[in-house]
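Re: [help] complex structure
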Amino acid sequence: MASFLLKLLLETAEVSVLMQSYRFHTLAHISLWAGLIAAFLCASAPRISRDVSKYSIHHIGPFQSTNHFLYLATGVSGASEQLIALFDSLPSSKVILIVAREDDPPSTFLAETMGYLAWPHPLKIINVTRLESELTATDPATVAAFVLCRVNRPSSLPQGEHFGKLLEVIPLGTEAQR
Amino acid sequence: MNAIALLAAFSTILAAGFGGLMLLARVQIRNLGEQFALSWLCGTGIVSFLIWALGFVIHGVSLFALVAIVCVTLPFVGWKINGPSTFRFQPLRGLRTVELLLGTLLVVEIGIIFYVARLHTLGWDGLMNWEIKARYAFSNGGVLPAAYFQSESLSFSHSSHPLAIPFTELWLYFWLGEANQFWVKTIFAMFYAAGAILLAAISARLTGKSWPGLIVANLLLFIPQITFDGESVTAGYVDFPLSVFYLAAIGYLLCACRSNDCQLFGIYAACLALLPWLKREGIILWLVAAVSGAFVVWRRKQSPARLLALLPGLFVIVVWRFYLLKVHAVSPHEFVPVSVANLLSNIHRLGPIVSAFLNEFAQTGPWSLFWLLIAIGCAYFVRQYRDIRSLVFFFALFAPIAVYPFIFIFSNWPNYLAQVALCSSRMLTDIVPLSCLTISVALASGLAATHRAS
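Output below.
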């Protein structure tokens, strides 16, 4: 009987130790993950709140993104619609020649935005270093417009329509204009 | 009016996905949230592929009408075949209070994503790589003109990227009646919703508990790179949608490992097929997921007929490559051709590239402490699943990270490390939702041990 009681006591103690071990394990597990998740949230929160406000704009419209980019680049509001109207007035079979500076990312981005808006015109984006040779080689009858993105206008080209100081569109597409 | 058009566009996508899953993969999910998420994924794949394929023979209103008819017809055909049980879903009554609270929080977070997507503009790639294709196709009756693919000056828009996302955007434009950079962002918020819900659903299937998955799905909002960064899901970047497809493919494959369930394998097959239809990197993810699937079939001694699941994805890859060849698409300039000579001449780049990739894991700006949580979660995953699931999971997690640096050996940028710096965070996004499974397994496994003990 005594040995049975002793065995029972020992087993109970063993279970109790095991239970305590599991309780400790659970507590450690919960503490670890609660701490990790709290640290994760604390580290993320400042960046999240900054990003939400940083990229937020309140202009709504079919050209929300391009208008925002063009506003940042040129300071002109609603430039996408104006540019599309201008491009639409040009013969769609003729090329729009976009001139940019390859070594100047804002100029390249502006040129690509012009490319995006100029569709369905055939496009040609060239580096400013090739402008003179392109002017010599290109038949003006095939060009609808020159678009100068952060590039100074060469004297051989007439003055065009300005969108801010850094973007100029020179339409050549119509007979009268040439 | 725009809200009604949006609702119609989303409903038809969901209908196509719902019907498509039933008919093609014989899948019926009883959980409404999970069904919604899977229907969205498969619906975008079906609608975009249909628009592209039917665009070879019709365009304009006829194309729009025919695709709409197919979308609406698919669930009805499924209903005819499967009977009244088709539209039967589980009630929410069985949920515990904590699960209801976490679920409500998740709904609020998804609402926040929709709201923030409204405020943010599309990011550069979101506009110039993806939306541009939808806009040009819309202005041409739903068909991308060959001139677009051939234009050297438009090569900045990566014309060789496949059309799943652009043609889902196009579907929205069809309904709106105009190309619209504002409303198009809702598509990405829908992908976020689908991703978060699938993460919770797959976690629940893996661990047998709902709450760990719900916690992890709620944490997704707090990864800056995923949610509010300039290259995130709210900026119209495709990396997150791609990662959701990858999560679905590998997640359901892991679930199918245990149960040999045909339906789960069917979902894996459907998502696998769509991986290469989203982005060029999708081919790598397809390859990894296909090898994982073949391994499961072999190790579990499943029917070799299941290997047929690999064919649709292969078909998509081949058909798209063939199409690009036929339209004489301009090759992307960012990479030199893959050849032994180029490999040998640039192999010295591998060390710095791998180093830059590994360095990305330590960036707390875009990732916060996310990768630390994942590293600890991985240990729990191995301890919990000492079987084929760990092999499949870690192969699917690490193989893309191991392969991606090799791409930049062929970089054509003067400063190839600048290209790595630009792309590495986006590429890591591909495995983010999948890696989140380690956290849910960790959360569930610690308490499971206690329950067993008591």
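The mean pLDDT of chain B is 91.
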